[in-house]
Amino acid sequence: MKKILLILPLLFWLGCEELIEEDTTPPTVIITSPIDGTIVSDSVEITCMSTDNEEVDKVELWVDGISTGVIDETEPYSLKWVTTEIEHGTYTIIVRAYDSNGNTTDSNPIILTVSNQSDYRLFTATFVGEFESDATTIIFISDSDGNILADTSFIGDASFDLIADRTSAVPPEKINITTIGKVNGNTQIHTNLGINKGSNWTWYNPYYNPDVIGESYYTFTNIPDDLYRVVLSSKGHNYRPYINDFDTYSLSHYNNNEDVVIMGLMNDGTVLYKIIENVSVGETHAVDFSVLQPAEQKVIINLTGEDCCFWNGLYGNYEDDSFIQYNRYRLSDGNMEGVDWNADLNFIANYPPSFTKFHTGLTVGQYNTPGEKDWYQRTFGEIPESVEKINADINVISSDIDNFEMDITGSYDQWSISALDATAGLGWSIYVNPSITFGELPTFPASVNEIYPEINRNGFIINKVSLVDWLCAENQEEWLEMLFSYDGYYGDICSGFRQVTYWLE
Predict the structure, then answer these.
(1) In this structure, how many other beta carbons lie within 10 angstroms of the beta carbon of residue 307?
(2) Which tens digits make up the pLDDT trace of 258-315?
(3) What is the pLDDT of residue 5?
(4) pLDDT single digits (tens) 316-370
(5) Residue 138: CB partners within 8 Å, gap ≥ 6?
(6) Domain boundaries along the sequence of the chain
(7) Which of 15, 221, 342, 394 is deepest in the core (most CB within 10 A)?
(8) Mean pLDDT of all residues in 179-207
């Protein structure tokens, strides 16, 4: 009996060990979407199938060998991978499955390329009345090597995003923007070099084509012997005749019932003036110089250091009027020593006291003279106390459109290139970020030659370069933000600029 009692517990223990088996079978897991090689962006849903001989506990997303912490514990399994803060590039994706006994399995890896749209959004463009509504406009984006990153065409007003090819490398942070379109029947080409990728611009066109509704007429008596000439001015129109006492002189009008300003420019630099109020087309007015009044005068000190002046343009505006050209009254616009500047080479500004704000343009140097420079100052508001040079200078090392190079010194906000195809009668205006001093002008996509066959890029030569310092902005970015967010004439928000221009031989 004792021997039997000793054997039975041992048999019972051995039987229990054979009944309990440890689970060492891992689950299976397969990624079902997206497929290997997919380009993804934003939030990506990664789905998988997983099974186990007992029970799948969870699935977990791993990227480049690192757990994302993204898990799903319930079928159907779906894992959301947020890529918005992840750099562009390729990533190795696996899903790790866990069963309830701690066994794990990794799926076969797939390669996904992160290419977020924000990385490839080059530019947002909106056009409001900028180009003719019945002609095709082209806009294209290029890089500094001339590669076309995106382009499109449209008719009339439009708004859209320009997106680069998301299978390509991420575009550079600085891009070039070119527009080609029709304005008043003329083909216009404009390029901005070195613009921030992702910029959002709206082109507003504050200009319009008012119709001339007719003319008014003027005769003169008691003309002073020392009169140089007369300026007749309505809003936006002027006539500058040398007068006598027997002819009748005409002045065009955009509007009826508007003031007409008569400025008699004297050889000694003074001016006699008269304002005839509420003039309508068809009227004739007899002007007796003996009743004209002396205009106010201000001398604008020439601080440029240049020993020669070129031009003095002064326009008057009423207080509530925009500075746009259709509201200007021409007060002087000439280059006569003694009339437009004095013997000390200081400019002369004569004006009726009823005008409260002015558009003043002053030029010194050799305007439009090959191999020479001129300096220009434009101001909106009060007549300036002085004319000064921009605190910067530019010299051309190479004027090849495929290999331009400039030597630029000083402080400025933007510089520009003017290129001309004299044979086709076309101009090309290029505005350049100050960080760029050499490079090449953009090549054109094939669509340009299809829509505008008159454009031949190789026909353009650079005929002048200019530096600009905006008096209303600290830098180019501030100026562009101001310009492309305002729907009116820029002179109404900007106090002016200084500029130097070098005319190529």
Answers:
(1) 9
(2) 999 999 999 999 999 999 999 999 999 999 999 999 999 999 999 999 988 999 999 9
(3) 43
(4) 999 999 999 999 999 988 999 999 999 999 999 999 999 999 999 999 999 999 9
(5) 151, 152, 153, 178, 179, 180, 181, 445, 447, 448, 451, 452
(6) 28-115, 214-386
(7) 394
(8) 96
CA nearest neighbour of 150 among 188, 174, 177 = 177
With H, G, I as helix, E, B as strand and everything else as coil, classify residue 319. Answer: coil
List of E strands, 34-131 = 39-40, 43-51, 56-63, 66-72, 77-82, 89-99, 104-106, 110-114, 121-128
Cα 241 to its chain centre, rounded Å, is: 40
Give backbone dihedrals phi and psi of 389, rounded to 5 degrees, phi first. Answer: -75, 150
* Pairing of the two strands 77-82 and 43-51: antiparallel
The DSSP code for 341 is B
- Residue located via tokens 């996509």: 445
pTM attached to this predicted model? 0.82
Residues 6 or more apart in contact with residue 190 via CB below 8 angstroms: 178, 179, 428, 429, 430, 431
The domain made up of 28-115 has a fold known as: Immunoglobulin-like (2.60.40)
Output b/e per residue, 212-247; b: 16+ Cβ within 10 A.
Answer: eeebbebbbeeeeeebbbbbbbbbbbbbbeebeeee
> Is residue 92 a contact partner of residue 46, using CB atoms and an 8 Å limit?
no
Q: How confident is the model at residue 481 (pLDDT cuts 50, 70, 90)?
A: very high
Residue type present at position 277? E
CB atoms within 10 A of CB 440: 14
* Distance separating alpha carbons of residues 134 and 323, to the nearest angstrom: 29
Q: Using one digit for the tens of pLDDT, what is the confidence trace for 76-128?
A: 999 999 998 888 889 999 999 999 999 999 999 999 988 887 888 999 999 99
Calpha distance 281→217 (Å, rounded): 8
Q: What are the two backbone dihedrals, phi and then psi, of residue 292, each rounded to the nearest 5 degrees?
A: -70, 150
Spatial contact of 392 and 467, defined as CB atoms under 8 Å apart: yes
What per-residue confidence (pLDDT) applies to 20? 60
**CA-CA distance, 396 to 117, in Å (whole number)?**
40
Cα–Cα distances in Å, from 459 out to 200, 398, 423, 443, 445? 32, 17, 8, 13, 16
Residue 365 bridge partners (DSSP): 374
In whole angstroms, what is the distance from residue 370 CA to residue 280 CA?
45
